[in-house]
Amino acid sequence: MIAKRIFILTGAGVSAESGLSTFRDTGGIWSRYKLEEVASIQGYENNPAFVLEFYNMRRNTHAGVEPNEAHIALGQLQTIWAERGGAVTICTQNVDNLHERGGALSVIHMHGEIAKARCHDCGGLAPYDGDLSPNMGCGACGRTGGMRPHVVWFGETPLYMDEIYEALSSADLFVSIGTSGNVYPAAGFVSAARAAGIPTMEINLEPSGNAEAFDLARYGKASEQVPAWVAEMVAIAG
Ligand code: APR
Ligand code: ZN
């Protein structure tokens, strides 16, 4: 089997055709909101109601969208590889659940998940797909005023980094899909792969900020490029 262990990093571009805004494309989220006001601890402490409302708006948008062909193809790849003794790690920067709804068996959400709420005081975590408000109580510690979306903000440490680097360092192939390569540590994964002698490929609408770091590249819409790539991988694997 070629590339028995594949590490896939995805970004907002993989969910764009499902109807979720990316961040840095024209008209993207950071062209409409100030990142430091809605995606930082400082922003939350300055105005928790505004930050919670930002995520309530995004969560409601997420409720109305469906996985696209790229999510479905990656779910198929992960399933087929698992059946044949291989492993596909899907590590996403996205906080939506479209990989799971597209059939992925396991997903590493390094920037958290918008459909979960976390208590700022005790860390208590629970699925929550309603609107969060500042005076909500925590189911674990009972304190009010500390519930926040389970999303990693700028200045905070992304989640599952040990698991990520373990899977990345033992991969035979690193594929980055739908990310601009702007935000670390995710943007540094391609360099870590190269340093470990792992072949790298990006699939993106256009060359990303670190396009030159990749051995291979396929440009175009994720809903077209990803299924085509997966079909080739499955055909080659025999
Ligand atoms: N198919 C493939 N790629 C696409 C598509 C598409 N249909 N549409 C957009 N893209 C590409 C863009 O060309 C861009 O390179 O997806 C990328 C999206 O980049 P960003 O908007 O910067 O999103 P992302 O890279 O995921 O951002 C990383 O930044 O703000 C933080 O936490 C946030 O997780 C996010 C992180
Ligand atoms: Zn609590």
Q: How many strand units?
A: 9
Q: Indicate the structural class.
A: alpha/beta
Quaternary arrangement of the chains shown?
Answer: single chain
CATH superfamily of the largest domain: TPP-binding domain
Here the CATH topology of the largest domain equals Rossmann fold
Strand order of the largest sheet: 3-2-1-7-8-9
CATH architecture of the largest domain: 3-Layer(aba) Sandwich
Question: What is the 3D shape?
Answer: globular
Radius of gyration in whole Å, from Cα? 18 Å
Tell me the number of structural domains.
2
Which molecules other than protein and nucleic acid are bound?
adenosine-5-diphosphoribose, zinc ion
Mean residue pLDDT:
96
Poorly predicted regions: none
How would a textbook summarize the main sheet? 6 strands, parallel
Report the total helices. 9
What is the helix fraction of residues, given as a range? 25-40%
SSE pattern: EHHHHHEHEEEEHEHEEH
Percent of sequence in beta strands: 15-25%
Termini separation comes to 8 Å
What is the CATH class of the largest domain? Alpha Beta
